[in-house]
Design a protein that fits this description.
Elements: H1 3-21, H2 35-47, H3 49-67, H4 70-84, H5 97-122, H6 130-162
Length: about 160
């Protein structure tokens, strides 16, 4: 394990703890903001689809162990990392800051929707109709995660990514 891999793993563990014991308690119509998706999107967009899927699997494992819901969480996190990787911006690309941020925001929407779709097809804790869970809960989850991503991006990562 190299030094470049240790920091993302530590951040991953911290984000999983924050999600399971913090953000998951903040619900609106059964949907909560997802800090893990934000982390997975950043990793997938800037390191690639394979790395994003690997981090998604690791996040699913950690969050699954912490929440006691191993199977579906592992599956959805892996799908989210894989989906966000479609918006990968290579390091040697000459993308502008605006282009990078647009790809980041698109990846959040795609990953949120894909994860919510997979989760909705398996779990129905509130007994809601399938189309409601997919579209209404999915849209609400996308908006919450997009708002969280914009906040994190503007507060912490804008200067880092512009270099």
């Amino acid at each position: 394990m190299t030094k470049n891999q240790i920091l993302p793993i530590i951040i991953l563990l911290a984000v999983c703890l924050l999600q399971v014991f913090g953000f998951s308690k903040l619900t609106l119509l059964g949907v909560s903001p997802d800090a893990v998706i934000v982390f997975l999107v950043f990793m997938s967009v800037f390191t690639g689809q394979r790395q994003g899927m690997t981090y998604g699997f690791a996040a699913g494992f950690v969050c699954g162990v912490l929440s006691g819901n191993m199977g579906i969480v592992l599956l959805t996190r892996t799908i989210e990392g894989f989906t966000a990787g479609y918006c990968h911006v290579p390091e040697n690309s000459h993308a502008t800051m605006t282009q990078k941020s647009r790809m980041l925001y698109l990846a959040v929407v795609l990953a949120s929707f894909a994860g919510n779709l997979a989760f909705s097809l398996v779990v129905n804790p509130l007994g809601e109709p399938l189309l409601y869970r997919i579209f209404v809960s999915g849209a609400l989850a996308c908006m919450m995660n997009l708002l969280l991503t914009v906040t994190v991006f503007r507060l912490f990562l804008r200067k880092t990514l512009s270099e």
